[in-house]
């Protein structure tokens, strides 16, 4: 009767136990190694400064230079204003 049944004694679980111990030990060593590593410091952020140029614009959305001392400023309604030497000119470039 017992000859037909495979033998699953205590030696059957031995490889499973050894593999589990190896896995747990390797996992613990890897976790310890990660914990001991010091993280690199983040690079310093660049400094940004804003300068006030002109007052009197309505919802500016874009700015570009003309290659000389003029700036063209596009306002949200579609008007393109001209700023020259820090002064908003009375006549827009495009209305």
Please characterize this protein's 3D structure.
By secondary structure, the protein is of the alpha+beta class. The chain is 24% helix and 20% strand. It has one helix and four strands; from the N terminus they run H-E-E-E-E. The protein has one helix at residues 14-36; strands spanning 60-65, 70-75, 80-84, 87-88. The protein has a four-stranded antiparallel beta sheet with strand order 1-2-3-4, with no helix packed on it. The mean pLDDT is 83.
Largest sheet: 4 strands, antiparallel
Task: Please state the average pLDDT score.
Answer: 83
Unreliable runs? none
Number of helices: 1
* Separation, N- and C-terminal Cα atoms: 103 Å
The beta-strand count equals: 4
Q: Classify the secondary structure makeup into a structural class.
A: alpha+beta
Radius of gyration, rounded? 37 Å
Helix content: 10-25%
**Major sheet: order of its strands?**
1-2-3-4
Give the overall form. rod-shaped
Order of helices and strands: HEEEE
What is the topology?
Elements: H1 14-36, E1 60-65, E2 70-75, E3 80-84, E4 87-88
Antiparallel strand pairs: 1-2, 2-3, 3-4
Task: Fill in the keyword field for this structure.
95 residues, alpha+beta, four-stranded antiparallel beta sheet, 1 helix, 4 strands, rod-shaped
Put the structure in a nutshell.
By secondary structure, the protein is α+β, with helices and mostly antiparallel strands. It is built from one helix and four strands.
């Amino acid at each position: 009767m017992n000859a037909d049944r495979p033998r699953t004694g205590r030696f059957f679980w031995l490889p499973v136990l050894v593999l589990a111990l190896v896995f747990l030990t390797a996992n613990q060593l890897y976790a310890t190694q990660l914990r001991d590593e010091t993280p690199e410091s983040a690079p310093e952020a660049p400094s940004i400064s804003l300068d006030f140029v002109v007052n009197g614009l309505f919802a500016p959305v874009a700015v570009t230079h003309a290659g000389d001392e003029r700036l063209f400023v596009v306002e949200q309604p579609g008007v393109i204003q001209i700023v020259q030497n820090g002064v908003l000119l009375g006549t827009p470039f495009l209305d």
